[in-house]
Design brief:
CATH architecture of chain A: Orthogonal Bundle
Number of helices of chain A: 3
Shape of chain B: globular
Order of helices and strands of chain B: HHHHHH
Oligomer: heterodimer
CATH architecture of the largest domain in chain B: Up-down Bundle
Shape of chain A: elongated
CATH topology of chain A: Helix Hairpins
Distance between the termini of chain B: 63 Å
Strand content of chain B: under 5%
Helix content of chain A: over 70%
CATH class of chain A: Mainly Alpha
Largest interface: A-B, 72 and 82 residues
Chain lengths: ~100, ~170
């Protein structure tokens, strides 16, 4: 717990980060930048779990555990997504979402 | 002192995340994302959750950011600049994000957070994390821990299977 910092301040920071990620997800047209916006969203959620656990329930570890699992799942998701992106690039020579009309072959 | 540090970290997180979704050079966007992830690790250090900060630095800043930069170098031209986004789409998405953020922040400000008054607290150090990961009694996490190891293995195998060159 940080002395002098209210819990809402940290939650406002993570909320802004989440919605910046949503904005990036909607605006971007490149698969890799969309993946980066998703990472921002996951990161904001992970901060939320840590802060709520730290400030409100200091007698348990559940929130930290959720953050660890979010980080692990984000790593797995990034690996699979990048494999798919490389495969899409190999087939279509572009990773722009508007030029990739079909994912099957 | 901690208060000043917190506001510096918060400004870094917000500024770099805005830059990372608006930058028109893709490699620059990835670098700004790396800065966001490192600032998040700094926030965890400030909250004194050292294990999670170390995991964040190793897995996110060390692994995922490098993986993203690697795939950028494989798939795009580094000097390539994105064309300007259609202003209608930009306005719509910006309004949606701003509206969502406004609703959430208003709700946050009105909500009354009550801390659980507890005499015994768990210090989130590596020892308690390790015990919680491998304990199978109340509040233990051995089942999700095992499930996530299988998930990571499956994801790695799937990534290799998807990305490898086909035979023909």
């Amino acid at each position: 717990m940080i002395e002098g910092i209210d819990i809402t301040h940290i939650l406002i920071v993570s909320t802004c980060m989440f919605f910046i990620g949503v904005y990036g997800f909607l605006v971007r047209r490149n698969l890799i930048t969309i993946l980066m916006a998703t990472e921002l969203i996951l990161n904001a959620v992970s901060i939320n779990f840590v802060v709520l656990n730290k400030f409100l329930y200091p007698n348990v570890l559940q929130g930290y555990m959720f953050s660890v699992f979010i980080i692990a799942i984000a790593a797995a998701e990034a690996a699979v997504a990048i494999a798919i992106i490389i495969n899409v690039y190999r087939r279509y020579r572009t990773i722009n979402v508007e030029n990739v009309h079909e994912m099957k072959y | 002192m901690n208060v000043i540090f917190f506001y510096i970290i918060a400004a870094a997180i917000l500024g770099f995340s805005i830059l990372s979704v608006t930058s028109r050079k893709i490699l620059r966007a990835a670098t700004f994302l790396l800065f966001v992830l490192i600032s998040t690790a700094a926030l965890y250090f400030l909250l004194q959750v050292h294990f999670l900060a170390a995991v964040q630095l190793m897995v996110y800043a060390g692994g995922i950011a490098v993986l993203i930069i690697f795939s950028i170098l494989l798939t795009s031209n580094v000097d390539f600049t994105f064309e300007k986004i259609d202003w209608k789409k930009q306005l719509f998405s910006g309004l949606l994000a701003l509206g969502g953020a406004a609703i959430t922040i208003l709700t946050l400000l009105q909500f009354n957070f009550k801390a659980l008054v507890q005499t015994q607290t768990v210090t989130p150090d590596i020892r308690s994390f390790g015990r919680a990961f491998l304990s199978y009694d109340d509040g233990g996490f051995v089942l999700p821990f095992e499930v996530i190891t299988v998930l990571l293995l499956a994801a790695m195998v799937a990534a290799i299977m998807v990305a490898k060159k086909s035979k023909q």
